[in-house]
């Protein structure tokens, strides 16, 4: 009888120990920072466009506006981050939708919980012209189609806590569209070239 009681107590101790281990593991998992995060950001943009013949020609198609964006990211390692973003910018003469993928390198700075970020961007962009110049209506109609983009970005990121971080980023995008335009004033154009520059402030939530 004594052996049975002793065996029962031992079994209860083992079950209690397993329960404590399981609860501790769940608590650790819940508190740990996960590699997936979402971002929301906004800021300002500048836009510049021109034709390229034998040499670039600036047609003074410049504009300023606002931009908002949302993204989802994955921390591949402590240093390398992949991110998929969608941005929408609205200016006086043009609106732009962009969907792009970026690969970023994050490195620590001398300030605690602050990091530097540098990365490259590829994706697609779509322009919608509010007021198209009369001499180039046919080309601007073509430019409303999706275009390939590439770019670079650099900025700062600050960890508020395990779940929240803020960022300040500068982004440069280049879009180039091959076309053919015959006009009396401008001759034959080979490429239409657009450049975008963004300054963005954002917040991210880490799961």
Provide structural commentary.
The chain is α+β, with helices and mostly antiparallel strands and 207 residues long. The chain is built from two helices and eight strands, in the order H-E-E-E-E-E-H-E-E-E. It has helices at residues 2-31, 137-143, and strands spanning 36-52, 56-75, 80-91, 94-108, 114-129, 146-159, 164-183, 187-206. Strand 1 and strand 2 (56-75) form a beta hairpin.
Outline the secondary-structure elements.
Layout: H1 2-31, E1 36-52, E2 56-75, E3 80-91, E4 94-108, E5 114-129, H2 137-143, E6 146-159, E7 164-183, E8 187-206
Antiparallel strand pairs: 1-2, 1-8, 2-3, 3-4, 4-5, 5-6, 6-7, 7-8
Overview in brief:
The protein is an alpha+beta fold and 207 residues long. The chain has helices at 2-31, 137-143, and strands at residues 36-52, 56-75, 80-91, 94-108, 114-129, 146-159, 164-183, 187-206.
């Amino acid at each position: 009888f004594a052996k049975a009681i002793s065996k029962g107590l031992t079994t209860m101790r083992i079950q209690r120990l397993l329960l404590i281990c399981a609860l501790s593991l769940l608590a650790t998992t819940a508190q740990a920072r996960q590699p997936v995060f979402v971002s929301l950001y906004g800021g300002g943009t500048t836009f510049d466009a021109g034709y390229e013949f034998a040499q670039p020609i600036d047609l003074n198609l410049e504009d300023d506006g606002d931009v908002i964006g949302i993204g989802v990211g994955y921390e591949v390692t402590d240093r390398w981050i992949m991110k998929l973003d969608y941005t929408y910018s609205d200016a006086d003469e043009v609106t732009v939708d962009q969907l792009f993928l970026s690969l970023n390198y994050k490195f620590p700075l001398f300030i605690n919980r602050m990091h530097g970020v540098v990365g490259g961007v590829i994706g697609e962009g779509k322009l919608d012209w509010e007021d198209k110049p009369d001499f180039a209506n046919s080309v601007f109609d073509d430019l409303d189609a999706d275009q390939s983009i590439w770019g670079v970005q650099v900025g700062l990121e600050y960890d508020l806590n395990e779940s929240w971080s803020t960022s300040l980023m500068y982004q440069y995008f280049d879009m180039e569209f091959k076309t053919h335009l015959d006009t009396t004033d401008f001759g034959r154009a080979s490429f239409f070239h657009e450049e975008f520059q963004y300054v963005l402030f954002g917040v991210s939530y880490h799961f």
